[in-house]
Amino acid sequence: MTTQHTGTSLEDLISALRTLQANGERKKENKVTILNSFDRSPAKASTFLMEVDLYLMANDTLYPNDKDKILFTLSYMKDRHAAQWMKAKTDKYKKSLKEKEAEASDTKPEDQIQLMTWEEFLDDFKEAFRPLDIGTNAQLKMKNLKQNKKHVDEYITEFRLLSINSEHDN
Fold first, then answer.
1. Half-sphere exposure in the Cβ direction for 9 (13 Å, CA)
2. Could you name the domain of life of the organism this protein comes from (predicted)?
3. Is residue 90 domain-shared with residue 141, that is, in the same domain?
Protein backbone atom coordinates (compact mmCIF):
# COMPACT_ATOMS: atom_id res chain seq x y z
CA MET A 1 0.00 0.00 0.00
CA THR A 2 1.39 3.41 -0.90
CA THR A 3 1.57 6.42 1.38
CA GLN A 4 -0.92 8.28 -0.79
CA HIS A 5 -3.37 5.34 -0.71
CA THR A 6 -3.00 5.03 3.08
CA GLY A 7 -3.61 8.77 3.51
CA THR A 8 -6.73 8.61 1.36
CA SER A 9 -8.04 5.57 3.25
CA LEU A 10 -7.41 7.31 6.57
CA GLU A 11 -9.25 10.44 5.38
CA ASP A 12 -12.16 8.27 4.20
CA LEU A 13 -12.25 6.52 7.58
CA ILE A 14 -12.22 9.84 9.48
CA SER A 15 -14.97 11.19 7.24
CA ALA A 16 -17.08 8.07 7.79
CA LEU A 17 -16.59 8.30 11.57
CA ARG A 18 -17.63 11.95 11.59
CA THR A 19 -20.74 11.11 9.58
CA LEU A 20 -21.63 8.29 11.98
CA GLN A 21 -21.05 10.55 14.96
CA ALA A 22 -23.23 13.31 13.48
CA ASN A 23 -26.00 10.83 12.65
CA GLY A 24 -25.74 9.13 16.03
CA GLU A 25 -25.84 12.32 18.06
CA ARG A 26 -29.21 12.84 19.60
CA LYS A 27 -30.31 15.85 21.48
CA LYS A 28 -29.77 14.96 25.10
CA GLU A 29 -31.84 16.24 27.93
CA ASN A 30 -29.94 18.26 30.52
CA LYS A 31 -30.29 17.07 34.07
CA VAL A 32 -32.73 19.46 35.68
CA THR A 33 -35.31 18.49 38.27
CA ILE A 34 -38.29 16.85 36.61
CA LEU A 35 -41.43 18.91 36.97
CA ASN A 36 -44.33 17.95 39.17
CA SER A 37 -47.74 17.92 37.54
CA PHE A 38 -49.63 21.16 37.96
CA ASP A 39 -52.99 20.83 39.72
CA ARG A 40 -54.39 24.38 39.37
CA SER A 41 -53.42 25.68 42.78
CA PRO A 42 -52.94 29.47 42.46
CA ALA A 43 -50.27 29.32 45.15
CA LYS A 44 -48.27 26.88 43.02
CA ALA A 45 -48.80 28.57 39.63
CA SER A 46 -45.77 30.86 39.87
CA THR A 47 -43.56 28.02 41.10
CA PHE A 48 -44.74 25.77 38.28
CA LEU A 49 -44.01 28.44 35.65
CA MET A 50 -40.58 29.05 37.16
CA GLU A 51 -39.81 25.31 37.02
CA VAL A 52 -41.00 25.14 33.41
CA ASP A 53 -38.87 28.16 32.51
CA LEU A 54 -35.75 26.68 34.13
CA TYR A 55 -36.31 23.35 32.40
CA LEU A 56 -36.84 24.96 29.00
CA MET A 57 -33.76 27.16 29.41
CA ALA A 58 -31.66 24.10 30.26
CA ASN A 59 -33.08 22.16 27.31
CA ASP A 60 -33.47 24.88 24.69
CA THR A 61 -32.30 22.58 21.88
CA LEU A 62 -35.06 20.08 22.69
CA TYR A 63 -37.77 22.75 22.77
CA PRO A 64 -36.62 25.38 20.27
CA ASN A 65 -39.96 26.89 19.27
CA ASP A 66 -43.17 28.12 20.86
CA LYS A 67 -45.20 25.07 19.81
CA ASP A 68 -42.79 22.67 21.52
CA LYS A 69 -42.71 24.79 24.69
CA ILE A 70 -46.51 24.95 24.83
CA LEU A 71 -46.94 21.21 24.27
CA PHE A 72 -44.27 20.43 26.89
CA THR A 73 -46.01 22.63 29.46
CA LEU A 74 -49.46 21.22 28.68
CA SER A 75 -48.12 17.70 29.19
CA TYR A 76 -47.58 18.48 32.89
CA MET A 77 -51.13 19.69 33.46
CA LYS A 78 -52.73 16.38 34.39
CA ASP A 79 -54.63 16.98 37.60
CA ARG A 80 -58.20 18.19 38.12
CA HIS A 81 -58.96 21.69 36.82
CA ALA A 82 -55.56 21.99 35.13
CA ALA A 83 -56.33 18.87 33.09
CA GLN A 84 -59.66 20.37 32.00
CA TRP A 85 -57.92 23.61 30.99
CA MET A 86 -55.25 21.61 29.13
CA LYS A 87 -57.92 19.65 27.24
CA ALA A 88 -59.75 22.84 26.27
CA LYS A 89 -56.48 24.44 25.07
CA THR A 90 -55.50 21.30 23.14
CA ASP A 91 -58.93 21.05 21.48
CA LYS A 92 -58.84 24.74 20.52
CA TYR A 93 -55.29 24.33 19.18
CA LYS A 94 -56.26 21.30 17.07
CA LYS A 95 -59.31 23.09 15.68
CA SER A 96 -57.27 26.17 14.75
CA LEU A 97 -54.60 23.96 13.20
CA LYS A 98 -57.17 22.20 10.99
CA GLU A 99 -58.59 25.55 9.90
CA LYS A 100 -55.12 26.86 9.03
CA GLU A 101 -54.23 23.69 7.13
CA ALA A 102 -57.48 23.92 5.15
CA GLU A 103 -56.55 27.38 3.91
CA ALA A 104 -54.71 27.47 0.60
CA SER A 105 -51.08 28.01 1.36
CA ASP A 106 -47.89 28.22 -0.62
CA THR A 107 -45.62 28.22 2.44
CA LYS A 108 -42.76 25.80 2.75
CA PRO A 109 -43.15 22.84 5.14
CA GLU A 110 -40.45 24.25 7.40
CA ASP A 111 -42.53 27.42 7.87
CA GLN A 112 -44.43 26.26 10.91
CA ILE A 113 -48.02 27.32 11.36
CA GLN A 114 -47.93 29.62 14.37
CA LEU A 115 -51.25 29.65 16.20
CA MET A 116 -50.15 31.02 19.54
CA THR A 117 -46.91 32.45 20.83
CA TRP A 118 -45.28 31.26 24.03
CA GLU A 119 -45.97 34.67 25.58
CA GLU A 120 -49.68 34.45 24.68
CA PHE A 121 -49.83 30.99 26.23
CA LEU A 122 -48.18 32.26 29.43
CA ASP A 123 -50.65 35.15 29.60
CA ASP A 124 -53.57 32.70 29.25
CA PHE A 125 -52.07 30.45 31.92
CA LYS A 126 -51.58 33.32 34.35
CA GLU A 127 -55.11 34.58 33.74
CA ALA A 128 -56.51 31.13 34.46
CA PHE A 129 -54.42 30.08 37.44
CA ARG A 130 -52.58 32.87 39.25
CA PRO A 131 -54.23 34.73 42.12
CA LEU A 132 -56.07 37.83 40.96
CA ASP A 133 -54.17 40.16 43.24
CA ILE A 134 -50.74 38.82 44.09
CA GLY A 135 -49.70 42.07 45.77
CA THR A 136 -52.63 42.17 48.19
CA ASN A 137 -52.23 38.48 48.91
CA ALA A 138 -48.55 38.99 49.79
CA GLN A 139 -49.40 42.01 51.97
CA LEU A 140 -51.95 39.97 53.94
CA LYS A 141 -49.42 37.20 54.45
CA MET A 142 -46.85 39.77 55.63
CA LYS A 143 -49.37 41.24 58.06
CA ASN A 144 -50.12 37.81 59.53
CA LEU A 145 -46.52 36.58 59.50
CA LYS A 146 -45.29 35.48 62.91
CA GLN A 147 -41.91 34.22 63.98
CA ASN A 148 -43.30 31.58 66.35
CA LYS A 149 -40.61 28.91 66.72
CA LYS A 150 -38.80 29.82 63.50
CA HIS A 151 -35.20 30.89 63.60
CA VAL A 152 -34.90 34.65 63.08
CA ASP A 153 -33.06 34.14 59.75
CA GLU A 154 -35.90 31.97 58.46
CA TYR A 155 -38.45 34.59 59.52
CA ILE A 156 -36.50 37.39 57.79
CA THR A 157 -36.12 35.33 54.62
CA GLU A 158 -39.86 34.60 54.53
CA PHE A 159 -40.62 38.29 55.07
CA ARG A 160 -38.26 39.34 52.26
CA LEU A 161 -39.74 36.81 49.85
CA LEU A 162 -43.25 38.08 50.58
CA SER A 163 -42.11 41.68 50.16
CA ILE A 164 -40.99 40.94 46.59
CA ASN A 165 -44.63 40.38 45.59
CA SER A 166 -46.17 42.96 47.93
CA GLU A 167 -45.83 45.89 45.46
CA HIS A 168 -44.30 48.12 48.14
CA ASP A 169 -41.23 50.17 47.24
CA ASN A 170 -39.66 50.17 50.68
1. 6
2. Eukaryota
3. no
pLDDT given at position 18: 67
The C-alpha atoms of residue 65 and residue 153 are separated, in whole angstroms, by 42
Same domain assignment for residues 79 and 142: no
41 lies in some domain:
yes
Range of the domain at 146: 133-170
Same domain (yes/no): 65, 93: yes
Q: What is Dmax (Cα atoms) for the chain? A: 87
* 121 and 59 both lie in a single domain: yes
Q: Is residue 47 within 8 Å of 33, Cβ to Cβ?
A: no
The DSSP secondary-structure symbol of 116 reads S
Mean pLDDT for each consecutive 10-residue tract of the chain (170 residues)? 57 68 59 75 82 91 90 87 88 83 61 76 88 70 83 85 67
Cα–Cα distance, 150 to 152 (Å, whole number): 6
Quote the pLDDT of residue 95.
87
pLDDT of residue 169: 57
Whether the CA torsion 133, 135, 139, 141 is positive or negative: it is positive
Residue 93 and residue 137 share a domain? no
Q: Could you tell me if 26 and 67 are in contact, meaning their C-beta atoms sit under 8 angstroms apart?
A: no
Query: What distance in Å separates the CA atoms of residue 117 and residue 9, rounded to the nearest whole number?
Result: 50
In a domain, 8, yes or no: no
Tell me how far apart the alpha carbons of residues 38 and 49 are, in angstroms, rounded to a whole number.
9
